[in-house]
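Entry for the shared binder. Reason: the reviewer on the internal report wants the predicted structure included alongside the sequence.
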Amino acid sequence: MQIKNLDFKNFVFGQAGVQGFFGEPDEHRHHKWYKLIPGFSFENMVFVAKTITLKPRIYPVSSNTELRDGYKIKRFFPKSIWLNLRSFFKGYLLNAVGLANTGAFDMFSYNKWQKRKDIFQLSFMPVGATVEERIIETRELCRIILANSCGMTFRYALQVNFSCPNTGHNQKQDPSDIITVLSSFRRMIPNLILIPKFNLLVEPETVVAVKPYCDAFCFTNTLEFGKKESKEWWKKLFPKEKSPLLKHFGGRFSGGLSGAPLFPLLVKWLEKMEQYDDTVVIIAGGGIMKKKDILKLSKFKIVHGVALGSVAILRPWRLESLINYGNKIFKKRNLK
């Protein structure tokens, strides 16, 4: 998939953080064991880094997840991620990780993104309570990026996360606020490719309004517990009608839903979006578990690539085949 001057070579992307911040094999402890499973491989998938914030988000003050060695998740299975036997077989989980990271300055100081040879994506979320605070965060990140670019052509795009439900405050934003943040990036780093990331709560009208200020979109982010669908829909997934994460984090963090139940919602959203505007460029993901899911997404004119995330936890033996199939299908479509 190519966006402007960046050719990502492949059409299958990771959801932000599925490989950690730097793609090292020990960033997620379960990968040590998953790599023994035939079919578990990230080869030929475009690397997308875990989302960072300007300031550190450290457990237990501003994040729900403990880190080790600076940026690696400490526990094999942190309390901020929930699934049980039933949800595993049905293909879904909850997470309230809370954007755990040590802050943009520290993350760039490892000098690992700067040394990557491949074309990849970073992910950033401004988390200020007001648009003014988010603009300040954006400007500071731009200064950090510029200080670490050495005037070289950027080998990465930037996902700007506008929809993570696990920051502890309401992230619903007016389209004008989103445009203001993206415009700040445009003014300070005109050649940086911007890819806003939204969840299923966003309306097509917002996408169209934002389109002139970015280069592509990423859909969908995790869906905040209890949102969008009816109580009956959620009750089928969680019979007790409450998030199991509440026992750990109280009312502030019900978590976000990932996995198979999102896929039909994603398809409905894409149908609505394509009818509204069929010229947008979207990397689509959310509950992709089977090859037929990728094939279905490839039928949409607006979908130019796909993103895999929870399948790496819930169906790890399918990961390699899904990556290869997705790249094959979209490459073939592009040649027509």
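Summary line for the report: Residues 2-58+105-223+258-335 form a domain with the TIM Barrel fold (CATH 3.20.20.70).
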